[in-house]
Design brief:
3 strands, 2 helices, elongated, three-stranded antiparallel beta sheet, about 110 residues, alpha+beta, about 15% strand, single chain
């Protein structure tokens, strides 16, 4: 996902699947003021549903980044056995949802 700054027009190079030729396209991107520079609220190339999916992708990426950061913290090594027993079912649930998401995304991707 490209990074966009607030309220700007960005030029990016997109690979054309049919011709295999790269071409530059100018994209209009609208953001709310004060939002993160990675949170694109509207992409004129997408339908409302497509924009909703992109927003959901942003939420998932943010949540995964937070989880990986916390799991990478040295404090994770200080969890006692009781804490691990309580937390493990949550990890199993996350893992199951991640696998289902991966399967679904794989089916939707353009070959």
């Amino acid at each position: 996902m490209a990074r966009y700054s607030s309220g700007t027009r960005v030029s990016e190079t997109i690979q054309s699947k049919s011709s295999g030729v790269c071409k530059a396209q100018s994209l209009a991107v609208i953001e709310k003021k004060g939002q993160s520079d990675t949170e694109v609220l509207y992409d004129a190339r997408l339908s409302t549903y497509g924009n909703d999916l992109m927003q959901s992708i942003g939420y998932v990426i943010q949540a995964v980044q937070i989880m990986l950061s916390r799991l990478g913290d040295h404090s994770v090594g200080r969890l006692n056995e009781t804490e691990k027993a309580i937390i493990t079912p949550g990890f199993e649930k996350v893992s199951g949802y991640a696998e289902k998401l991966k399967e679904t995304i794989t089916c939707l991707q353009i070959p």
